[in-house]
Amino acid sequence: MENSGKSYSVSIVTATLNESENISLFISGLNKIIEENSINNLMELVIVDDGSTDGTIEIIEKLENYSKIPIQLVKRNKRKGTVDAQISGSRIAKGDYVIIIDADLQHPLKYIPEFLKMLDYNPDIVIGSRYFKNHNNKMTFSRIAMSRTAQLMAYIMLKRSRRLKDPLSGYFMAKRPYIANLKKIKNSYKLLLYIIAEYSKLKAYQIPIAFHKRVYGKSKITEKSIKTAISYTQEIFIYYNLSRMAMHHKSI
Fold first, then answer.
1. Which of 45, 55, 107, 224 could bond to 171 as cystine, CB 3.0-4.6 Å?
2. Given the DSSP bridges, would you call strands 172-175 and 97-100 parallel, antiparallel or unpaired?
């Protein structure tokens, strides 16, 4: 594949917490995608770990010497939440753009070349949407119900989210400053909603993705579904208030 958007550099940022069963597959899969597609504008993989105790860190450190893509590992001793980790990772990333992705393999790596193709359009953000028609998503019923309910709440509370098919997506690419310049919010999970709340004028594109079930380990979302639903509700209200204060914000 001839590399699209080659004038832009891209970093990949992921947050981990006890992903020892998935992280080696994630890193090896990423290297395979890079090799098979002759990708040359991925600068690094930034991994922010929130205090794993299952050997995740040790596995990453072993793989650092063999990875085609340089790995930056940030070890934090305290769990501060996914959004906080993603912002921290984006601040130290070197790329013009950042791809936000989960390391548990529920976000298929095969879509990374599709994100990179969109660089030709100089986007502010490119969102991987689970809700294009005829796209097969392997989500559990409880996850679908929770996601759709949160999506409805986002549409009600954040008017600007209504133009997006999947405003709660956790798989997207954005210009790095849009993430790095955000204030950190602890114990939050939906970075995309935060971006939407803070910036009213985004040149946004959407691409279809299929969401996969976890192969190993338990989802940190569905295993505590009631607690997660309450957290999502609180988080959406936070972003609603931020959006009201940020109505004057313009594109960076």
1. 107
2. antiparallel
Query: Residue holding tokens 């997006």?
Result: 164
d(CA 161, CA 235): 15
Classify residue 29 by burial, with Cβ atoms within 10 Å: 0-12, 13-18, 19+.
Answer: middle
On the CB side of 76, CA atoms within 13 Å amount to: 18
N-terminal to C-terminal alpha carbon distance within the chain = 31
User: Is residue 194 classed exposed, middle or buried when 0-12, 13-18 and 19+ CB atoms within 10 A define those classes?
Assistant: buried
Contact 12, 102 (CB under 8 A): no
For residue range 29-54, what is the model confidence (pLDDT) as tens digits?
999 999 999 999 999 999 999 999 99
Give Rg (Cα) of the chain: 17
pLDDT value at residue 149: 81
Summarize pLDDT for 11-26 with one digit per residue, the tens: 999 999 999 999 999 9
The answer to whether 196 and 161 are in contact (CB under 8 A) is yes
Calpha distance 240→237 (Å, rounded):
5
CB distance 16 to 50 below 8 Å: yes
Alpha helices in the chain (DSSP H): 23-36, 56-63, 82-92, 112-117, 141-157, 176-180, 191-198, 225-245
pLDDT of residue 209: 95
pLDDT digits (tens, 9 = 90+) for 65-93: 999 999 999 999 889 999 999 999 999 99
